Amino acid sequence: MPDIADALSEDRHGTIIALEITAGAKTDSFPAGYNEWRKTIGCRVTAPASEGKANHAIITLISERLAVPATKVSIQSGATTSKKRVLVAGMSKPDLLDRLNGISGL
Question: What's the mean pLDDT when you consider all of the chain?
Fold first, then answer.
């Protein structure tokens, strides 16, 4: 199993996840692998990368998979790119790492 902790960084508001997004995928998937070179976790959404649809789908998918309210998940940077930094507010890095390790896909 890869060390996905490098894709996570603590922030005063919670923990930030470095993501690599694939919009317009066949199925929604998070986590969808780990890129050890870029230190990013993969995220695939079926929504297209237009008019903020993919960003909304990313927030919804991550909140569902981590079992946190969608209001706790926000895109901090990369709103118009495939590389994003997403904040999970109120969750420590160890707690987020435990939840990610409990989800298949890595």
Answer: 94
